[in-house]
Amino acid sequence: MSGSSYAFPYNEKDPKSIERYGKEMIGKTFQDIFDEHNEFALSEDHDAFLDNSYVKSHKKKDYKGGLGNLVEECHFRYKANSDSHADFPDAGVELKVTPYKKDSKGLYKAKERLILTMIDYINIVKEKSFHESHVWKKCHLMLLVWYLYEKNKDKMDYKINFVDLFTPTKEDQKIMEEDYNKILAKIRAGKAHELSEGDTLYLGAATKAANSTIRREQPFSDVPAKPRAFSLKNSYMTYVLNSFFINRKGAAESITKGQAVSHFEQYIIDKITAYKGLSVKELCEKFDLNPKAKNCESAIAFRILGVKGNRAEEFEKANIIVKAIRLEKNGTIKQSMSFPTFRFKELAKETWDDSTFGNYLRETRFFFVVYQDMEDKGFVLKGCQFWNIPYDDLEGNVREVWQKTHDMIARGLKFEYKDGTYTSELPKQKDNPVAHVRPHGRNNSDTYELPDGRQYPKQCFWLNRKYILSQLDEKLKE
Asked: What is the pLDDT of residues 221-256, one digit of tens each?
């Protein structure tokens, strides 16, 4: 199609003209867009006609570009390419076609992270700043085209529902700049192989390769690293979808109240630390909370941060999970950390690199709010820290526990039921220094089906209490 004699039906130098023309796709399926292109091609320029083999190739799961390329070529009428420049270079606009879905509760969510551009480990270290970087050129002005993903529906029948230009807000840019600098610092330290999406808040370093064995050279280490791409996290894109496109602001409140805050995490830590030494009772009185309420300690943290409910905008964008940690009088932790239950049949079909639990830990950043039992005052606020699981722990001990669990379930879990109690071979706390598996249902009757059709009590992965204690900053344990 490149080199065709017809003119673009929009001004390729004007972002608003591109947007206006893009909005003509709203309400149409990808099949509609393809058919309209061919109708035009037959009437105006026969060389641009596309047969059904074009559709078949763009529907393939492993076809790079897929539906995005179809939009470029069939609607905007330019040949898709892997050029590193913006899709509309004269307007400085990047085109991104991305899916969203509706969950069982009727809520709209981004289906996946938004891939921006590959991270060139060799050349990124030469970049001067975030606002002069290649990734910023890719995301400073995007035409976002959202289509509704529906399970078991033909890709060509997905419908486009939202099309708009989007630029991250000044507040978001500040946090993205910090994210960029964290990623860059790790690469400069020769640790590109240890990058994780949990390291950062909005701008992630997502794995991006045809298979998990591919590796790339990095500049300050002989250890090869997985290919990664800059991406806007799934959680961030979900917020963008609801706030800027669907106009459903939701109940999340901003911590920064519209300020472009430098060093966001330190800003949060300083706010919490200002209340260090106060007891749960004193803090509940100050913020009018019930000390006996579930998740009271987490609620205190939100109140300190100026959030009336338990949803903070910045935390939701960054997929930050607040966890209250209780230290006993002797400095130990009584409870291990639980995660959502897993379905045995789904787990048995997964691989580690694309596992639900592995991805949860890779993509989640935690905010620990630490309290310690002091004899005279009860539990007292000690402080807080941000944390995500270290690469070596995730790919070592956690992977080992996950793999053993997967293999045991896939081949047919061995278990006994005696005197109202189930016992199985699933990994226990004593078997691994980091993680284990144990029940997380209401009772023994709260079960999921195993791949062989038998029922077994719901289980989940846990991070060991001693491991969590080892991950706390020393100053929080003093």
From this structure: 999 999 999 999 999 999 999 999 997 766 789 999
**What digits encode the pLDDT tens for the residues 302-327?**
999 999 989 999 999 999 999 999 99
The residue segments making up the domain with residue 424 are 264-476
DSSP state of 336: P
Are residues 228 and 285 located together in one domain of the fold? no
- Shared domain check, 282 and 240: no
Overall domain count for the chain: 2
**Tokens of residue 473, six digits:** 């900053």
* Nearest of 334, 325, 318 to residue 471 by alpha carbon: 325
- CATH number of the domain bearing residue 241: 3.40.600.10
Sheet holding 203-207, edge to edge: 114-118, 228-232, 203-207
| Cα-based angle 139, 85, 120 (whole degrees, multiple of 5) | 80
Q: Are 123 and 218 in contact (CB under 8 A)?
A: no
CA–CA dist 181, 428 (Å, integer):
39
Q: Are residues 374 and 450 in the same domain?
A: yes
What is the residue whose two structure tokens read 């929080």? Answer: 476
Provide the mean pLDDT of the chain: 93
Six token digits for residue 420: 């109202």
- Structure tokens belonging to residue 185: 């610092």
Claim to verify: residue 231 and residue 271 sit in the same structural domain: no
Per-residue confidence (pLDDT) for residue 339, from 0 to 100: 95
Assess whether 307 and 406 both reside in one domain: yes
**Is residue 257 a part of any domain in this protein?**
no
Q: Cα–Cα distance between 403 and 383 in angstroms, integer?
A: 35
Contact yes or no for 154/351 (Cβ under 8 A): no
DSSP, res 404: H
Domain boundary, last residue among 215, 245, 275: 245
> Which one of 216, 245, 274 terminates a domain?
245
Q: Is the pLDDT of residue 46 over 70?
A: no
Residues 151 and 230 both lie in one domain: yes
Residue range 150-155: mean pLDDT, rounded: 93
Residue 458 in domain: yes
Is pLDDT of 369 > 80? yes
Phi, psi values for residue 221, rounded to 5°: -160, 150
Token pair, residue 152, equals 């078991």
pTM: 0.90
In a domain? residue 189: yes
Q: DSSP code of 88?
A: B
Do 193 and 82 belong to one domain?
A: yes
pLDDT tens per residue across span 93-131: 999 999 999 998 889 999 999 999 999 999 999 999 999
345 with 451: CB under 8 angstroms? Answer: yes
Contact 300, 272 (CB under 8 A): no
Instruction: Please name which of 404, 398, 405, 424 lies closest in space to residue 343, comparing C-alpha atoms.
Output: 405
Tell me, yes or no, whether 176 and 276 share the same domain.
Answer: no
